[in-house]
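Order emerges. For instance:

***
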Amino acid sequence: MAAEPEAAARTRIDVWLWRARLTKTRALAARLAQSGHVRINGQRVVSAGRSVKSGDVLTVALERTVRVLRVAELGERRGPAAEARTLYDDLSPEPPPRAGFGGEPSDPAGSAEDDDG
């Protein structure tokens, strides 16, 4: 009976990634974990069955960004997005500001000064 609370306090990394809506399907979550693009507390994950618990810090390399998340809850189901956001605290740094598109300056006031002369 002592193993039940411990078992309830952990879940598989692929299940958690899916419940937290970082991937669309559990199969994609398993593939992401097996590819080595996920770290738990700095250690690379190579198995989708690796356990995760509350307080663990995950580093997830997604297609165009890297997310750093602290597991707040394990969740019991894959719910709506608002519920999924309660499963983690986002520790990711803010992305750098993007330049304007098409080579235009990002500050429209600065470009107006150039037209005076």
